[in-house]
Design a protein that fits this description.
disordered C terminus; pyruvate-formate lyase- activating enzyme; about 35% helix; globular; about 450 residues; 6-stranded parallel sheet; 3 domains; single chain; OB fold (Dihydrolipoamide Acetyltransferase, E2P); 14 helices; Rossmann fold
C-alpha cells in the first residue's frame, strides 16, 4: 500500500506553487496525497518567514505532532520546507523534536530522496537537513500537481537582489536567478494543455525578468505568452515600481490577454520612510508612475502593499501614507504592522521604536480608509457588465459560482457548474467591500470563447 502525504502551506503564491511542485515530486515517487494529516505517513509543512506570526504557526504545529507522539507513541514523518527552513536550518531542532527533514527553498528536487531516507531510517534517527543552495531554477515539465484547474502558477524568477531593509526574501530565497524563456513558455503551454485558462507569473521582482537564453525582457515575455492558443488571461506578481518600464506599460495596454490589474507595492507614503526602507523610489516618483499607468490604461485596477510602524515612522509619516492611499484609490491592499525579520538591514541597523499600540491604531486607520475606498469603487461597478473567469463554486452558497474580473475583483453569481473554466459576461447587481454580486448577462453559445 502506498504511503500517504499531507502538505500544509503558509505564505505567498510562490510557496503555494512550491507545494504544487513538491506534491508532484512525491506523486512521482509513489506516494499518495491525503487531505487529513491524521491519515498521513508524511506531513510536509511549507513555511513562510515574511511575518513573525507565520513562524510561530510552524512551531505551534510541530508542538501538536510532538504531543500526538507523547499520547499515542506514533506520529508521521515531518518535513519542514520553505523560508523558515532556509532561514533557521538546524536551529529548528532546538525548539522541536517532531522534525525528521529540513529542506531549503532551493533544494525541492531532493525532497523524495530525503523523505524516503527518513521513512526507512531507524525510529530515533538524526533529522536530515539539506540547505545547500543549488542555484538551479529548472524543474521537470509536467511534474507539478496544480491545485487549481483553471489558473496555473508559472515561476519566472527565483530570489531577489533588491535588499529592501524590511525584507527577508534575499536571505531565504537567495540571489536573483532568471528562468530560461523556453522553459517558461513550455510550462505555460503545458498548463493550458491540461486545462488552465489563466497563467500567473511569479517572481520576487517579476518585472525585472531578462531571459538568460534569448534577448527578451518582461514586456517581450508578455508578448510571447499572448501568442499561446487557449490561454485566456495573463497575470503576474509582484512587480517593483522602479522596474515598471514604458515597454511594460505599452505591452499591458496593447495585449488583451494581460489582465487590467497591476499590483504596485509602495510600502509607505512617506519619502523619508521609503529611503529608510531602501525602496529606491520617492512618493513623487510613485505618484508619477501611477499617473503614467492610468493615462495609458484608464481602466487599470491597482493594488499595493503597505507597512505601518516602520522604525522612525512619525505621525506625519503615517499621515503621508493615508494621503497617498486616498489619492491613488487602490482596489485592494495588503497591509501589515512592521515586525523585525531575521538578518534584515532593519533589524541590524534600526531600532523598532514605534509602540505596538500605536502600530495597531495606525493599521486600523489605514484599513478603515482602504475599506471605504474599496466600497466606493465596487459600488461604481454596479450596473456594469464584467467578463468573469469562473474558477470555482462559491464558498458560501452551493448554487453560486465564483470568479474574477480582469481587474482581479471577486464576483459571485448564480450559474451552472459546466461554466467553471469559462469567461462569462456578468451584470453586477450589488457590491460588498471585498467582492461583487451579479447575474449572468446572457446564456450565450459562445460563453467561454473569450468574448
Amino acid at each position: 500500500m502506498a504511503r500517504k502525504y499531507f502538505i500544509e502551506t503558509y505564505g505567498c503564491q510562490m510557496n503555494v506553487h512550491d507545494s504544487e511542485r513538491m506534491a508532484g515530486l512525491l506523486d512521482q515517487a509513489g506516494y499518495e496525497p491525503t487531505s487529513d494529516d491524521l491519515d498521513a505517513d508524511v506531513v510536509l509543512i511549507n513555511t513562510c518567514s515574511v511575518r513573525e506570526k507565520a513562524e510561530e504557526k510552524l512551531f505551534t504545529r510541530l508542538g501538536e505532532f510532538h504531543q500526538r507522539e507523547l499520547e499515542t507513541g506514533e506520529r508521521p514523518i515531518v518535513a519542514v520546507a520553505g523560508c523558515v527552513a532556509q532561514q533557521e536550518g538546524s536551529q529548528i531542532l532546538k525548539r522541536s523534536r517532531a522534525v525528521d527533514v529540513i529542506i531549503g527553498t532551493q533544494n525541492l528536487k531532493r525532497l523524495p530522496m530525503l523523505v524516503d531516507s527518513a521513512v526507512h531510517a531507524p525510529k530515533r534517527h538524526a533529522p536530515l537537513v539539506d540547505l545547500d543552495p543549488l542555484g538551479d531554477v529548472s524543474f521537470p515539465l509536467g511534474i507539478a500537481r496544480r491545485g487549481d484547474p483553471v489558473k496555473a502558477y508559472v515561476t519566472i524568477i527565483e530570489g531577489c537582489n533588491e535588499f529592501c531593509a524590511f525584507c527577508v526574501v534575499p536571505y531565504t530565497r537567495g540571489h536573483e536567478r532568471m528562468r530560461p524563456l523556453a522553459d517558461i513558455l513550455a510550462d505555460a503551454r503545458n498548463a493550458v494543455e491540461t486545462g488552465a485558462r489563466e497563467v500567473q507569473l511569479l517572481g520576487q521582482i517579476v518585472n525585472h525578468y531578462q531571459a538568460p537564453d534569448l534577448d527578451c525582457d518582461f514586456a517581450g515575455l508578455l508578448e510571447r505568452l499572448s501568442d499561446i492558443d487557449g490561454l485566456e488571461r495573463i497575470r503576474f506578481a509582484s512587480p517593483h515600481p522602479r522596474h515598471v518600464t514604458a515597454r511594460m506599460i505599452e505591452a499591458m495596454r496593447q495585449l488583451p490577454k494581460v489582465c487590467r490589474h497591476l499590483h504596485l507595492p509602495v510600502q509607505s507614503g512617506s519619502s523619508r520612510i521609503l529611503a529608510a526602507m531602501r525602496r529606491r523610489h520617492t512618493r513623487e516618483d510613485y505618484l508619477a508612475l501611477v499617473r503614467r499607468v492610468r493615462d495609458a490604461i484608464p481602466d487599470i485596477a491597482l493594488s499595493t502593499d503597505m507597512i505601518v510602524g516602520f522604525p522612525g515612522e512619525t505621525a506625519e509619516d503615517f499621515d503621508a501614507t493615508l494621503s497617498l492611499t486616498a489619492e491613488v484609490r487602490y482596489h485592494s491592499m495588503f497591509s501589515f504592522k512592521n515586525s523585525p525579520r531575521p538578518n534584515t538591514l532593519a533589524l541590524k541597523r534600526l531600532r523598532d521604536d514605534v509602540d505596538e499600540g500605536e502600530k495597531t491604531s495606525r493599521i486600523v486607520a489605514l484599513q478603515g480608509l482602504q475599506k471605504d475606498i474599496q466600497g466606493e469603487l465596487h459600488g461604481q461597478a454596479v450596473g456594469s457588465i464584467q467578463d468573469v473567469l469562473v474558477d470555482s463554486r462559491s464558498r458560501r452558497r452551493h448554487w453560486e459560482l465564483s470568479g474574477r474580473t480582469s481587474g482581479n475583483t471577486v464576483v459571485n453569481f448564480g450559474g451552472q457548474a459546466e461554466w467553471i473554466g469559462t469567461i462569462v459576461p456578468v451584470r453586477i447587481t450589488a457590491a460588498n467591500p471585498n467582492s461583487l454580486k451579479g447575474e449572468a448577462a446572457a446564456f450565450l453559445d459562445t460563453v467561454g470563447s473569450g468574448a
